[in-house]
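2024-03-11 09:14:02 DEBUG pipeline.ingest accepted 1 chain
2024-03-11 09:14:02 DEBUG pipeline.ingest length=368
2024-03-11 09:14:03 DEBUG pipeline.predict start
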Amino acid sequence: MLLNKTIRLFLDSIGRREEYELYLNKFQSADTICFALLVPDLESLDQGAEALAFDLHFLLRLGLRPAVVLCGPDAEAKWHLLADNPLFAKAELPNTCGEPVKSIGNSEDQVPVFFQVLEKSESAGSLSAEALAKKEDCIKTLEKMIPTIGKRVHFIRAAGGFDADYYYTQKENTLHLTDEEQALADTASALLAARPGTHISVTSPMNLLEEIFTVKGAGTLFRKGSTIVSPDFQTLEKSKMVTLLEESFKKKPKSNAFDAVTHVYLEENYRGAVLLEEHPEGLYLSKFAVGPEARGEGLAQELWAEVCKKHDAFFWRSRVGNSVNQWYDRQADGYYTSGDWQIFWRCMSAASLPGLIAFCENRAPDFI
Protein backbone atom coordinates (compact mmCIF):
# COMPACT_ATOMS: atom_id res chain seq x y z
CA MET A 1 0.00 0.00 0.00
CA LEU A 2 1.38 3.41 -1.02
CA LEU A 3 1.29 5.71 1.99
CA ASN A 4 0.97 9.46 1.57
CA LYS A 5 3.40 11.77 3.36
CA THR A 6 1.02 12.73 6.17
CA ILE A 7 0.18 9.11 7.05
CA ARG A 8 3.85 8.13 6.81
CA LEU A 9 4.89 10.93 9.19
CA PHE A 10 2.20 9.89 11.66
CA LEU A 11 3.32 6.26 11.57
CA ASP A 12 6.94 7.37 11.98
CA SER A 13 5.90 9.09 15.20
CA ILE A 14 4.48 5.78 16.48
CA GLY A 15 7.40 3.46 15.79
CA ARG A 16 10.15 2.26 13.49
CA ARG A 17 9.34 2.07 9.77
CA GLU A 18 10.48 -1.54 9.33
CA GLU A 19 8.16 -2.58 12.16
CA TYR A 20 4.97 -0.84 11.07
CA GLU A 21 5.51 -1.88 7.44
CA LEU A 22 5.83 -5.51 8.60
CA TYR A 23 2.55 -5.29 10.49
CA LEU A 24 0.77 -3.38 7.72
CA ASN A 25 1.61 -6.11 5.21
CA LYS A 26 0.58 -8.80 7.67
CA PHE A 27 -2.77 -7.19 8.51
CA GLN A 28 -3.63 -6.33 4.92
CA SER A 29 -3.13 -9.95 3.85
CA ALA A 30 -5.29 -11.38 6.66
CA ASP A 31 -8.00 -13.86 5.65
CA THR A 32 -10.64 -12.41 7.98
CA ILE A 33 -13.35 -9.78 7.46
CA CYS A 34 -11.75 -7.40 9.98
CA PHE A 35 -8.08 -7.29 10.91
CA ALA A 36 -8.79 -6.99 14.66
CA LEU A 37 -11.53 -7.15 17.30
CA LEU A 38 -11.45 -4.32 19.84
CA VAL A 39 -13.11 -5.00 23.19
CA PRO A 40 -13.33 -1.82 25.32
CA ASP A 41 -14.48 -1.58 28.92
CA LEU A 42 -17.02 1.04 29.99
CA GLU A 43 -14.49 3.28 31.71
CA SER A 44 -12.23 3.44 28.63
CA LEU A 45 -15.16 4.61 26.50
CA ASP A 46 -16.37 7.04 29.14
CA GLN A 47 -12.92 8.63 29.33
CA GLY A 48 -11.45 8.03 25.87
CA ALA A 49 -14.15 7.47 23.23
CA GLU A 50 -12.88 10.38 21.13
CA ALA A 51 -9.29 9.12 21.22
CA LEU A 52 -10.47 5.66 20.22
CA ALA A 53 -12.54 7.08 17.34
CA PHE A 54 -9.50 9.02 16.08
CA ASP A 55 -7.37 5.85 16.04
CA LEU A 56 -10.07 3.82 14.29
CA HIS A 57 -10.53 6.48 11.63
CA PHE A 58 -6.78 6.36 11.01
CA LEU A 59 -6.88 2.56 10.70
CA LEU A 60 -9.62 2.85 8.07
CA ARG A 61 -7.42 5.25 6.07
CA LEU A 62 -4.76 2.53 6.08
CA GLY A 63 -7.25 0.06 4.63
CA LEU A 64 -7.46 -1.79 7.94
CA ARG A 65 -10.97 -2.34 9.20
CA PRO A 66 -11.39 -3.16 12.89
CA ALA A 67 -14.57 -4.25 14.63
CA VAL A 68 -15.69 -3.18 18.08
CA VAL A 69 -17.15 -5.85 20.37
CA LEU A 70 -19.21 -4.80 23.37
CA CYS A 71 -19.36 -7.58 25.94
CA GLY A 72 -21.05 -7.96 29.29
CA PRO A 73 -24.15 -6.68 31.05
CA ASP A 74 -23.02 -3.07 30.44
CA ALA A 75 -22.95 -3.45 26.65
CA GLU A 76 -25.93 -1.12 26.17
CA ALA A 77 -24.26 1.60 28.26
CA LYS A 78 -21.13 1.27 26.13
CA TRP A 79 -23.14 1.59 22.91
CA HIS A 80 -24.72 4.85 24.13
CA LEU A 81 -21.21 6.33 24.31
CA LEU A 82 -20.60 5.46 20.64
CA ALA A 83 -24.03 5.73 19.03
CA ASP A 84 -23.88 9.46 18.16
CA ASN A 85 -20.65 9.09 16.17
CA PRO A 86 -21.36 8.18 12.50
CA LEU A 87 -18.09 6.25 12.43
CA PHE A 88 -19.77 3.40 14.31
CA ALA A 89 -22.49 1.16 12.87
CA LYS A 90 -24.37 -1.66 14.56
CA ALA A 91 -23.69 -5.10 13.15
CA GLU A 92 -25.53 -8.36 13.71
CA LEU A 93 -23.73 -10.88 15.86
CA PRO A 94 -23.56 -14.43 14.44
CA ASN A 95 -25.45 -16.99 16.50
CA THR A 96 -22.98 -19.84 16.07
CA CYS A 97 -19.29 -20.28 15.32
CA GLY A 98 -18.54 -19.99 11.62
CA GLU A 99 -21.92 -18.51 10.74
CA PRO A 100 -21.63 -15.87 7.95
CA VAL A 101 -21.85 -12.27 9.04
CA LYS A 102 -25.17 -10.89 7.79
CA SER A 103 -24.52 -7.20 8.41
CA ILE A 104 -21.27 -5.41 9.09
CA GLY A 105 -22.05 -1.75 8.68
CA ASN A 106 -23.13 0.45 5.81
CA SER A 107 -19.76 1.06 4.15
CA GLU A 108 -16.03 0.50 4.40
CA ASP A 109 -15.79 3.94 6.03
CA GLN A 110 -17.57 2.67 9.13
CA VAL A 111 -16.51 0.49 12.01
CA PRO A 112 -18.94 -2.34 12.79
CA VAL A 113 -20.02 -2.66 16.42
CA PHE A 114 -21.15 -6.08 17.62
CA PHE A 115 -22.97 -6.59 20.88
CA GLN A 116 -25.82 -8.35 22.56
CA VAL A 117 -27.44 -7.14 25.74
CA LEU A 118 -27.48 -9.64 28.59
CA GLU A 119 -29.53 -9.17 31.70
CA LYS A 120 -27.57 -8.72 34.91
CA SER A 121 -27.70 -11.58 37.34
CA GLU A 122 -29.29 -11.05 40.75
CA SER A 123 -25.86 -11.25 42.37
CA ALA A 124 -24.25 -8.77 40.00
CA GLY A 125 -23.95 -6.22 42.78
CA SER A 126 -20.55 -7.59 43.77
CA LEU A 127 -17.44 -6.85 41.77
CA SER A 128 -16.53 -10.53 41.45
CA ALA A 129 -19.98 -11.47 40.14
CA GLU A 130 -19.93 -8.59 37.65
CA ALA A 131 -16.46 -9.60 36.46
CA LEU A 132 -17.61 -13.22 36.11
CA ALA A 133 -20.59 -12.19 33.97
CA LYS A 134 -18.35 -10.13 31.68
CA LYS A 135 -15.86 -12.99 31.40
CA GLU A 136 -18.45 -15.60 30.40
CA ASP A 137 -20.13 -13.24 27.93
CA CYS A 138 -16.85 -12.25 26.28
CA ILE A 139 -15.69 -15.84 25.90
CA LYS A 140 -18.94 -16.91 24.21
CA THR A 141 -19.12 -13.83 21.99
CA LEU A 142 -15.50 -13.80 20.86
CA GLU A 143 -15.36 -17.55 20.27
CA LYS A 144 -18.07 -17.07 17.63
CA MET A 145 -16.27 -14.21 15.94
CA ILE A 146 -12.59 -15.18 15.89
CA PRO A 147 -12.65 -17.79 13.10
CA THR A 148 -14.04 -15.49 10.39
CA ILE A 149 -14.31 -11.90 11.60
CA GLY A 150 -10.92 -11.24 13.23
CA LYS A 151 -8.07 -13.28 14.73
CA ARG A 152 -6.55 -10.41 16.71
CA VAL A 153 -8.25 -9.35 19.94
CA HIS A 154 -7.29 -6.13 21.74
CA PHE A 155 -8.99 -5.58 25.09
CA ILE A 156 -9.05 -1.87 25.91
CA ARG A 157 -9.03 -0.63 29.50
CA ALA A 158 -8.76 2.90 30.81
CA ALA A 159 -6.01 1.54 33.09
CA GLY A 160 -4.16 0.00 30.12
CA GLY A 161 -2.16 -3.20 30.36
CA PHE A 162 -1.10 -5.12 33.45
CA ASP A 163 2.17 -4.45 35.26
CA ALA A 164 4.07 -6.67 32.80
CA ASP A 165 4.64 -6.88 29.05
CA TYR A 166 3.47 -10.51 28.92
CA TYR A 167 1.03 -12.73 30.76
CA TYR A 168 1.61 -16.47 30.20
CA THR A 169 -1.54 -18.54 30.43
CA GLN A 170 0.26 -21.89 30.77
CA LYS A 171 3.23 -20.78 32.86
CA GLU A 172 3.60 -19.47 36.38
CA ASN A 173 2.89 -15.74 36.76
CA THR A 174 3.87 -13.66 39.78
CA LEU A 175 1.59 -10.70 38.99
CA HIS A 176 -0.88 -9.53 41.64
CA LEU A 177 -4.14 -8.98 39.76
CA THR A 178 -7.43 -7.45 40.83
CA ASP A 179 -10.65 -9.44 40.41
CA GLU A 180 -11.37 -7.67 37.12
CA GLU A 181 -7.83 -8.22 35.83
CA GLN A 182 -7.95 -11.89 36.79
CA ALA A 183 -11.28 -12.24 34.98
CA LEU A 184 -9.68 -10.71 31.88
CA ALA A 185 -6.67 -13.03 32.17
CA ASP A 186 -9.05 -16.01 32.50
CA THR A 187 -10.96 -14.83 29.42
CA ALA A 188 -7.74 -14.64 27.41
CA SER A 189 -6.69 -18.09 28.66
CA ALA A 190 -10.01 -19.63 27.64
CA LEU A 191 -9.88 -18.00 24.20
CA LEU A 192 -6.32 -19.14 23.56
CA ALA A 193 -7.33 -22.67 24.51
CA ALA A 194 -10.41 -22.59 22.27
CA ARG A 195 -8.84 -20.63 19.38
CA PRO A 196 -5.09 -21.39 19.27
CA GLY A 197 -3.04 -18.85 17.37
CA THR A 198 -5.24 -15.87 18.28
CA HIS A 199 -3.32 -12.69 19.13
CA ILE A 200 -4.74 -11.28 22.39
CA SER A 201 -3.55 -8.21 24.28
CA VAL A 202 -4.82 -5.47 26.59
CA THR A 203 -3.94 -1.78 26.26
CA SER A 204 -5.38 1.70 26.78
CA PRO A 205 -7.23 3.87 24.22
CA MET A 206 -4.25 6.24 24.14
CA ASN A 207 -1.76 3.46 23.32
CA LEU A 208 -3.77 1.39 20.84
CA LEU A 209 -1.80 2.29 17.69
CA GLU A 210 1.55 1.76 19.40
CA GLU A 211 0.31 -1.61 20.64
CA ILE A 212 -0.73 -2.57 17.11
CA PHE A 213 2.23 -1.33 15.05
CA THR A 214 5.36 -1.81 17.20
CA VAL A 215 7.26 -4.91 18.25
CA LYS A 216 7.56 -3.74 21.86
CA GLY A 217 3.86 -2.85 22.01
CA ALA A 218 2.22 -0.71 24.66
CA GLY A 219 0.22 -3.07 26.83
CA THR A 220 0.22 -6.69 27.96
CA LEU A 221 0.26 -9.60 25.52
CA PHE A 222 -1.41 -12.88 26.54
CA ARG A 223 0.52 -15.96 25.46
CA LYS A 224 0.41 -19.66 26.25
CA GLY A 225 4.19 -19.64 26.52
CA SER A 226 6.69 -21.26 24.17
CA THR A 227 8.26 -24.69 24.38
CA ILE A 228 12.03 -24.23 24.52
CA VAL A 229 14.17 -27.29 23.78
CA SER A 230 17.91 -27.84 24.03
CA PRO A 231 18.85 -30.47 21.43
CA ASP A 232 22.26 -31.59 20.30
CA PHE A 233 23.26 -29.37 17.39
CA GLN A 234 23.90 -32.38 15.17
CA THR A 235 20.22 -33.36 15.38
CA LEU A 236 18.88 -29.99 14.18
CA GLU A 237 17.30 -29.39 10.81
CA LYS A 238 20.10 -27.19 9.51
CA SER A 239 18.04 -25.73 6.67
CA LYS A 240 15.45 -24.41 9.13
CA MET A 241 18.18 -22.93 11.33
CA VAL A 242 19.79 -21.19 8.35
CA THR A 243 16.41 -19.79 7.30
CA LEU A 244 15.80 -18.47 10.82
CA LEU A 245 19.21 -16.74 10.89
CA GLU A 246 18.73 -15.25 7.42
CA GLU A 247 15.31 -13.86 8.35
CA SER A 248 16.55 -12.52 11.66
CA PHE A 249 19.86 -10.96 10.53
CA LYS A 250 18.98 -10.25 6.87
CA LYS A 251 22.28 -11.92 5.92
CA LYS A 252 23.50 -15.38 4.97
CA PRO A 253 25.61 -17.21 7.56
CA LYS A 254 29.02 -18.47 6.45
CA SER A 255 29.41 -22.20 5.95
CA ASN A 256 31.55 -22.48 9.11
CA ALA A 257 29.25 -20.35 11.29
CA PHE A 258 28.08 -23.39 13.29
CA ASP A 259 31.38 -25.25 13.66
CA ALA A 260 32.04 -24.24 17.27
CA VAL A 261 28.45 -24.43 18.60
CA THR A 262 28.22 -26.43 21.84
CA HIS A 263 24.83 -25.39 23.32
CA VAL A 264 21.49 -24.75 21.57
CA TYR A 265 18.25 -23.30 22.96
CA LEU A 266 15.48 -23.49 20.40
CA GLU A 267 11.77 -22.74 20.16
CA GLU A 268 10.36 -26.06 19.00
CA ASN A 269 9.04 -24.65 15.69
CA TYR A 270 12.28 -22.83 14.81
CA ARG A 271 10.83 -19.40 15.47
CA GLY A 272 13.79 -18.41 17.66
CA ALA A 273 17.12 -19.77 18.83
CA VAL A 274 20.21 -19.06 20.92
CA LEU A 275 23.56 -20.64 19.98
CA LEU A 276 26.54 -20.70 22.35
CA GLU A 277 30.19 -21.75 22.05
CA GLU A 278 32.79 -22.84 24.63
CA HIS A 279 36.07 -20.90 24.46
CA PRO A 280 39.01 -20.47 26.84
CA GLU A 281 37.68 -16.99 27.64
CA GLY A 282 34.32 -18.45 28.71
CA LEU A 283 30.92 -19.23 27.21
CA TYR A 284 30.27 -17.08 24.15
CA LEU A 285 26.73 -16.36 22.90
CA SER A 286 27.30 -16.34 19.14
CA LYS A 287 23.72 -16.09 17.80
CA PHE A 288 20.47 -14.80 19.26
CA ALA A 289 17.82 -15.02 16.55
CA VAL A 290 14.07 -14.41 16.62
CA GLY A 291 12.09 -14.56 13.38
CA PRO A 292 10.13 -11.46 12.26
CA GLU A 293 6.74 -13.09 12.86
CA ALA A 294 7.68 -13.94 16.46
CA ARG A 295 8.97 -10.51 17.44
CA GLY A 296 6.83 -8.73 19.94
CA GLU A 297 5.44 -12.01 21.29
CA GLY A 298 7.85 -12.35 24.21
CA LEU A 299 9.79 -15.24 22.67
CA ALA A 300 13.13 -13.40 22.99
CA GLN A 301 12.55 -12.97 26.72
CA GLU A 302 11.64 -16.65 27.12
CA LEU A 303 14.78 -17.78 25.29
CA TRP A 304 16.93 -15.41 27.30
CA ALA A 305 15.45 -16.61 30.59
CA GLU A 306 16.17 -20.23 29.65
CA VAL A 307 19.80 -19.45 28.82
CA CYS A 308 20.29 -17.49 32.07
CA LYS A 309 18.69 -20.31 34.07
CA LYS A 310 21.17 -22.83 32.68
CA HIS A 311 24.30 -20.64 32.46
CA ASP A 312 25.34 -18.03 35.01
CA ALA A 313 28.23 -16.52 33.05
CA PHE A 314 28.58 -15.74 29.35
CA PHE A 315 29.50 -12.91 27.00
CA TRP A 316 28.50 -11.67 23.55
CA ARG A 317 28.94 -8.84 21.07
CA SER A 318 26.62 -6.69 18.99
CA ARG A 319 27.16 -4.12 16.26
CA VAL A 320 27.30 -0.53 17.46
CA GLY A 321 23.98 1.10 16.60
CA ASN A 322 22.00 -2.15 16.82
CA SER A 323 18.53 -1.23 18.11
CA VAL A 324 18.61 -4.14 20.57
CA ASN A 325 21.68 -2.82 22.40
CA GLN A 326 19.58 -0.90 24.92
CA TRP A 327 17.89 -4.16 25.87
CA TYR A 328 21.27 -5.92 26.03
CA ASP A 329 22.55 -3.17 28.32
CA ARG A 330 19.76 -3.96 30.80
CA GLN A 331 20.66 -7.66 30.79
CA ALA A 332 24.41 -7.25 31.09
CA ASP A 333 26.67 -6.54 34.07
CA GLY A 334 28.87 -4.38 31.86
CA TYR A 335 29.96 -3.61 28.32
CA TYR A 336 32.92 -2.24 26.38
CA THR A 337 32.81 -0.50 23.00
CA SER A 338 35.58 -1.23 20.52
CA GLY A 339 35.37 -0.15 16.89
CA ASP A 340 32.22 -1.56 15.31
CA TRP A 341 31.39 -3.74 18.31
CA GLN A 342 29.73 -3.36 21.66
CA ILE A 343 30.91 -6.23 23.89
CA PHE A 344 28.65 -7.36 26.76
CA TRP A 345 29.09 -9.80 29.65
CA ARG A 346 27.19 -11.36 32.57
CA CYS A 347 28.82 -12.72 35.76
CA MET A 348 32.28 -12.86 34.16
CA SER A 349 35.26 -12.38 36.48
CA ALA A 350 37.27 -9.18 36.22
CA ALA A 351 40.34 -11.23 35.26
CA SER A 352 38.53 -12.67 32.23
CA LEU A 353 37.51 -9.32 30.73
CA PRO A 354 40.71 -8.53 28.77
CA GLY A 355 40.61 -11.96 27.14
CA LEU A 356 36.92 -11.93 26.18
CA ILE A 357 37.22 -8.37 24.82
CA ALA A 358 40.20 -9.41 22.70
CA PHE A 359 38.30 -12.48 21.50
CA CYS A 360 35.33 -10.35 20.37
CA GLU A 361 37.59 -7.78 18.72
CA ASN A 362 39.41 -10.42 16.68
CA ARG A 363 36.56 -12.81 15.88
CA ALA A 364 35.70 -12.84 12.18
CA PRO A 365 32.08 -12.04 11.16
CA ASP A 366 29.80 -15.08 11.00
CA PHE A 367 27.77 -13.73 8.08
CA ILE A 368 28.59 -13.12 4.44
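2024-03-11 09:14:41 DEBUG pipeline.report The chain has two domains: 5-223, 228-362.
2024-03-11 09:14:41 DEBUG pipeline.predict end
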